[in-house]
Amino acid sequence: MTDEKKIEIFEEAFQDTGIVGSRRDCVCGNIFYNSNGGWDWEDGELEGLAKNINATDVDYSVGTITFEGKGYCLDCTCWHKRALMIFRFLMSHNSPVVALFRAVKKYELAMVESIEVEI
User: Fold this and answer.
1) Which of 42, 53, 55, 72 is most buried by a 10 A CB count?
2) What is the pLDDT along the chain (119 residues), one digit of tens a residue?
3) Cα separation of 75 and 73, whole Å?
4) Using an 8 Å Cβ cutoff, are 64 and 71 in contact?
């Protein structure tokens, strides 16, 4: 499987579904914005973005992806290296990862079943 395919799969799994907008600031400092989307901009904001060397104008709503507590722009590539590391770890440890999820599920079910509810 190519790295591009791994990134695509990772993105599908971790992207922030339904969270898009006119502008998103990536954790690395890059900015992605959509100047053509009919958005409301503050006076001078769009002009400032156009002059910013770290800002990229795209012609669609800007999406995000969040993992390890950090928010990234989908269009930025800064998160790809770390995503590939996580992907490779998960795939090379698939049996222990599945065992971990089963153990967590078992624990959480036991916690729910221990709650007494009066009807």
Assistant:
1) 72
2) 999 999 999 999 999 988 788 999 999 999 999 998 778 888 999 999 999 999 999 999 999 999 999 999 999 999 999 999 999 999 999 999 999 999 999 999 999 988 888 88
3) 5
4) yes
- Token pair 């090379």 is found at 92
State the pTM of this model.
Answer: 0.79
- Please name every residue paired with 68 in a beta bridge, in sequence order, or none if there are none: none
Rounded CA separation 52/86 (Å): 32
Mapped onto helix, strand or coil, the DSSP state of residue 9 is helix
Distance of CA 84 to the CA centre of its chain: 14
Contact indicator for 76, 48 with CB cutoff of 8 Å:
no
* 8 Å CB contact between 75 and 56: yes
The Cβ-side half-sphere exposure at 26, using a 13 Å CA radius, reads 21
